[in-house]
Amino acid sequence: MNRRSFLKNTALGGSAAAATSLAAPAYAQGNRTLTMVTTWGRGLAGVHDAAQYCADAITEMSDGALTVDLKAAGELVGAFEVFDAVSAGQADMYHGVDYYFLGQHPALSFFSQVPFGMNFQEYSNWFYHDGGRELADELYPIFGLKPFPAGNTGPQSGGWFKSEINSPDDFQGLKFRMPGQGGQVLGKLGASVQNLPGSEVYQALSSGAIDGTEWIGPWADEKAGFQEITKIYYTAGFHEPGPNLNLTLNLDVYEELTPAQQSIISNAAQAVNIWSMSQFMANNSAALQRLQSGGVTILEFPDSVWDAFGAAAEEVTKEPMGDELYKKCYDSYMESLRSSAAWGSRSEGEFTAQRNRIVGI
User: In the prediction, which pLDDT does 30 show?
Assistant: First the structure.
């Protein structure tokens, strides 16, 4: 049981809660610098941009009362150390994607991405209006954290390979970089899955430490330079149709802020959410054309591979169902996904297909 739950469930905690409800909260006074650590190397296209946009927005919206000092991966703590650093109070907040931290709790997948899961709009529906935020506020306080959606890459590409993937058997023994439950799916297909921070992927692919990698999409991948190493690129992936990035604060730090400052944090995160998604989507098409003109072979996985992805994904997403909170998140997430997708396929999905047919896209 975590510290907060213990206090709430003891007589002393109940008395303390009753006493504090009668007194004004003790908010920190004066200007304050908040340290943000990230899972991103400085300059990584899109994802570091989102962290910087969020840091700048908080500083500007608070008129300097809150100044966010951004530390990229490795500048204060490593990319995979930010969760623990903020939980322990070593830093005030982090910007990152939480499938890096499934070892802390498997339900973090629902607040980052699950295979064959939600796109950006579907995730926003769930989080803001269909129970997701309430579940986040049940999960993250276990670790002394408070999360806010703060960026999205849109649908991610299938990845870069040294040779073509013609059947599920081609994943046997393949050294491939893919984090989260997506990586667990490839593990089911026999791949040797590597979980590397973004800033280390180019070197690993170049040196042969890995045979292939997914990263984000055409624009960010082009900026990373993967086309200099291999020319085989699969544009549609199963693993991240709309991965959510989070701005996550130490909960004690968040509760020390004034209501106005808390509102600034929330609204800055929402602003970067749409800004980030738009940045990726505005740049991907032109980048894909440049990659193709530069000799990259653009491919899609055959149906047999998609079927294998689907079967393995069902196993992976259901394996942690023995955890009560994971199951609660799963049930809520899937109910919301089915509802959003049912309407979306009949409205936007049909419209998009007809529009593209009529205007010749």
Answer: 73
